[in-house]
Amino acid sequence: MRAPAVQGTYFDGLSARAHPVTLVLEDSLEINGRDLRLAWPLADLAAGDTARPLMRIGPAGHGARVEFTDGALAAALEERCPDLYRTDPSASGGRLRLVLWSIAAGISVIGLAIYGVPAIAVRLAPVVPAAIEARLGGAVDGQIGKILGDPPVCDDAPARAVLDRLIERMTADAGLPVDPAITVRRHAVANALTLPGGRVVVLSDLIDQSRTPDEFAGVLAHEFGHVAAHDPMRALLAASGSSFLLSLVLGDLTGSTIIVAVGQAAISAGYSREAENAADSYSVEFMRRSGGDATALATILERIAKDEDKDDGKAEFASLLRSHPFTTERATRIRAMAGTETVGRRILDETEWATLKGICRNVPPKTAK
Ligand SMILES: [Zn+2]
């Protein structure tokens, strides 16, 4: 059953024009009006300072907002939006959460002094609330876009449909903590980056460089392994250390200096050997289960390693290599795990693969990097 629709007014944050809309609270806040269809993630929503019954909410950090006076919708949002009153936690159920987090952060700061950051990061990462991780992921995503020079998003509709079906097949019953959200951006470096909150940014050259759909899917499955293990959150905690914990206590989660540092780290730094091996094991398992060639990840890794050895100044793979180290050793391990029974299988047929390869046909040609 759908939640009841509530009348409201939408402002785009750029002009003063009021747009009449209907609001429906589902998994996100859906906003429908003439020529307008939006779905705002609940984790992003913040409320403005208004006198009841008027309520004004919008995605934090954005100018866009909706106003309404429906008490039931207000109550439901208060219950379901973790950060609705981030600057004023006492006004909602957010207070208890904040207190708990302050205690956790306090304990962790002590732990930091005793064990050092990485040990604490490993323990803390899986218990960071999903809503917080989602917001951090959004902030890091924006930051990475900036660092990479805002490469355009590739979303040719037929290609996107192939990709979505592939992701669906690979992650069904995979038990991931969140459904991964994959964005493809046109960029002349072959890489895939996993951010907190299950966001995966694929740079289009990775698709260009993949000779089979299974090579691409194998890398994607490896990134899903990082999602499963909360590795980006660990990296974020390790990179920002006590300043992140302090920002939790102070409530300034998206403190810009931290996010800049983390965005940079996500691009240039790799994970530990253990984390990479674990993600490879996931990849083998995902590929085996979803009908792909589990050894294709090893194939593309070996090609990357060779590409690097050549050192002809091109080194298309340099970035993927840097963020995914121990290439040759990993390839050997993957082949050993995968065995031979999946060799030669194709996770997509030729037509689907050709369609997926054209995912950037809707954006202008890439500029040389
Ligand atoms: Zn990795």
Description:
By secondary structure, the protein is an alpha+beta fold. The protein has two domains: 6-87, PH-domain like (Roll); 131-357, no CATH class. Helix content is 50%, strand content 15%. The protein contains 14 helices and ten strands. It has helices at 71-80, 94-115, 117-124, 130-147, 157-171, 205-209, 213-228, 231-250, 256-268, 273-289, 296-310, 318-323, 327-338, 350-357; strands at 6-11, 19-25, 28-33, 36-41, 45-47, 55-59, 65-68, 181-185, 190-195, 199-204. A seven-stranded antiparallel beta sheet has the order 4-3-2-1-7-6-5. A three-stranded mixed beta sheet has the order 8-10-9. A hairpin with a 2-residue loop joins strand 3 and strand 4 (36-41). The chain binds zinc ion. Residues 222, 226, 271, 276, 279, 324 line the site of zinc ion.
The rounded distance between the terminal residues' Cα atoms is: 50 Å
Instruction: Classify the oligomer.
Output: single chain
Tally the helices: what do you get?
14
Residues in helices, as a percent range: 40-55%
